[in-house]
Amino acid sequence: MSDKLDFLAFGAHPDDVELGCGATIAKLVSQGKKVGIVDLTRGELGTRGSAEIRTKETKEASKILGITIRENMDFKDGFFRNDKEHQLKIIQVIRKYQPDFVFCNAPDDRHIDHPKGSQLIVEASFLSGLTKINTDDSLGNAQMQWRPKNIYHYIQWKNLDPDFIFDVSGFHNTKMDAVKCYSSQFYDPKSKEPETPISTKNFMNFVQSRANDFGRLIGVEHGEGFISNRKLGFSSFEELI
Q: What's the distance, Cα to Cα, between the start and end of the chain in Å?
């Protein structure tokens, strides 16, 4: 069976992808697309919970989204770098799954790992298409070069202007169910752990409100916004909402 995916979503931490484009992924899966998620770190520096708890939460969220694969790169939370070592590891993943399109973190955000991870994925995606960069798979076989057609940055903490909004009406509840799997990280009135910016009720209300607002802007119930790594083109006006 081929490892090839239609879409591959990267997140600096477990839960980034769910928050940023969980409804989009659920919709793509419902359309028969093969979608995978790769988390760069285990979120071990998070104020609440632990890496072990986060791993269990991730498994539950992945089931809800119905994705084909999920992997973790085990990069160091807070301290991974956009350097040759990390780029080569991402290149191996891109060449393994040969995604047509990639999702990744916002290019500008509150958490330092988000823009750092974003740039790492952008650069590794380009380098993955160069024939003179040699990588091997887990069995020691030489990998063929592969470059995704485009990279789409999902929007996170900051209110960045999207290049386009994807209609996710009918799939927002699936996204929220996946997000709520990370109960150690988000609003839980019974929790005794320290409060963080994302553990407040206000933040969960914001996630809901943003989906409503993006939907409002394109005349649908819910939407998710993306920033495109390159100019978008289309061949039919009927494709546009």
A: 36
- Whether the model clears a pTM of 0.70, i.e. scores above it, the answer is yes
Contacts of 201 (CB under 8 A, 6+ apart): 187
Q: What is the DSSP letter of 155?
A: P
At 100, which amino acid appears?
Answer: D
Q: What is the pLDDT of residues 127-184, one digit of tens each?
A: 999 999 999 999 999 999 999 999 999 999 999 999 999 999 999 999 999 999 999 9
Quote the distance between the C-alpha of residue 44 and its chain's center: 18
Q: What is the DSSP letter of 136?
A: B
Q: Which domains does the chain have, with CATH numbers?
A: 7-230 (3.40.50.10320)
What is the enclosing helix (H) or strand (E) of 75? strand 69-75
